Amino acid sequence: MNRQSLIIDCDPGVDDAVALMLAFGAGEFELLAVTAVGGNVPVEKTARNARMLRQIAGREDVPVFAGAERPLRREPAGAGEFHGAEGLGDLAPFEPDAPCADGHAVDAIIDLVMARPERSVALAVMGPMTNLALALREAPELAARLGPVAVMGGARSEGGNITASAEFNIWADPEAAAEVLASGCEVVLFGLDATHQVRATEERIALLEAIGTAKAATAASMMRFSQRIEREIVGWPSLPEWGPPVHDPCPVAWLLKPALFELAPCHVRVETESELTRGHTAVEFREAVAGSLPHRWATAADADGVFALIAAAVGTTGTN
Ligand code: RIB
Ligand code: CA
After folding, report:
1. Nearest CA-CA partner of 167 in 14, 46, 278
2. Which among 30, 139, 144, 172 could disulfide-bond with 128, CB atoms 3.0 to 4.6 Å apart, if both were Cys?
3. 175 close to ligand 1 (CB < 6 Angstrom)
4. 118-166 per-position pLDDT tens digit
């Protein structure tokens, strides 16, 4: 099997945790590294959480690098209310056996990508884009070298989740998002328009709980936490088809099975000046207006297909 080389940049984070369980269990990836960024919780915790999840999944073969502590310009702003104070919901923190790899995440991204054939390394970004923006500042040639940059981020038709018009990852570091989108990277954005179609319904969570592996139990536990918290904070209805959106597995699922998503060519720009609409993603689909359509925006997702990939990946044991 010709495996896809992949770096995952994340801020675990309960849905990042599900994405990592998917990536750790899917045999189709050559996982080069997991890089942590400050976001949902501070980077000390996101890096520790990535190491915890790596140990649970039995994937200490994958190095974890700690990255940016704070956004390019803004003050750090977490989302602990949706992820728990430690970042992994009800999962009690423990000190993982294996430490972080030496070196900073930004340097790891540059070194790993530049050492491999052009366009051969994909990057899944599921937190604030600070690490990638810093890497592109240090090595602008990275943009032409990287393969697809699959980003969980952005808000358009669905509106925002941190403000009326912005999604958290982009809102947390809008300058980083703007720099990445202007860099020439091949960016594919999985915003709320797509991720709100991928929900952890009672039936889907129960299916994961029945699998019996540590990865499955961990993924299900994260979704149970989100189910409870979203009901408490957002007040979602007790309907069988309802469930909290599971955002971060979407870019990983697309890399595994692109047919699960519908993408539209577009040009995305980010609001960085207005406080009211900070982090809004202005998604322009009209080439005559934008001049070029260098990005892609996910407009639809096959939720059953995404959950089938998650169930298959977390049902594996050991390393792939
Ligand atoms: O808006 C959803 C995104 O913000 C997800 O990546 C979640 O983990 C939080 O970081
Ligand atoms: Ca995240």
Report:
1. 278
2. 172
3. no
4. 999 999 999 999 999 999 999 999 999 999 999 999 999 999 999 999 9
Q: CB of 173 closer than 6 A to ligand 1?
A: no
Residue 152 beta carbon below 6 angstroms from any ligand 1 atom: yes
CA of 291 to the centre of ligand 2 (A): 31
Question: Given 83, 104, 196, 247, which residue is catalytic?
Answer: 247
- Mention the CATH class of domain 4-314: alpha beta
Q: Please indicate, yes or no, whether the overall pTM of this predicted structure exceeds 0.90.
A: yes
Q: Read off φ and ψ for residue 266, nearest 5 degrees.
A: -160, 175
Ligand number with the minimum distance to the CA of 152: 1
For residue range 205-242, list pLDDT tens digits in order: 999 999 999 999 999 999 999 999 988 887 877 777 88
Ligand 1 centre from 238 Cα, in Å? 23
Q: Does residue 198 sit in helix, strand or coil? A: coil
List the domain boundaries for the chain: 4-314
Distance, CA 287 to ligand 2 centroid (Å)? 31
Average pLDDT over the chain reads: 95
79 lines ligand 1 (CB under 6 A): yes
In this structure, what token pair is assigned to residue 154? 């952005």
Query: Residue 54: beta bridge partners?
Result: none
Assess whether the C-beta atom of 281 lies below 6 angstroms from ligand 1. Answer: no
**CA dist list (Å): 173 to 13, 69, 166, 177, 227:** 16, 12, 11, 7, 26
Mean pLDDT of 241-268: 97
Confirm whether 247 is a catalytic residue.
yes
- Tell how far the Cα of 2 is from the centroid of ligand 1, in angstroms: 30
Q: 3-class DSSP state for residue 319?
A: coil
- Of 184, 183, 186, 152, the closest CA to residue 281 belongs to 152
